[in-house]
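Appendix B, record 7
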Amino acid sequence: PQQEKYVRQAMRFIDNSVDVITIQDVAAHVGLHRSYLSTLFHRYTGKSPQEYLIDHRMKRACALFANPFSAYSLGYDPSTFCRVFRQVTGMTPMQYKASLRKKL
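Structure tokens (predicted):
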């Protein structure tokens, strides 16, 4: 259905974004009102667009740990980044970095 296409399009936009984006940016990209996009997104994925965006940012952060990066490039100030990273991964960025070193 068309509704599912909107959700897939929103997910692709988030997945392919290199700039800091907001849910409003995503909604504008797919041409829907933010609240309607949130309703559809939750219906088809079980997550809110915000949750999906946070997961995307944290996956991107994990991938970037091998290279220097800034929390600002992901749209966070450092203290917020650490808090959100811990909520998503269960460990602090320092703990995550240490776990990567142990795997090498």
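Remarks on this record: Helices lie at 2-16, 23-30, 34-45, 49-64, 78-89, 93-103. The chain has a mean pLDDT of 85.
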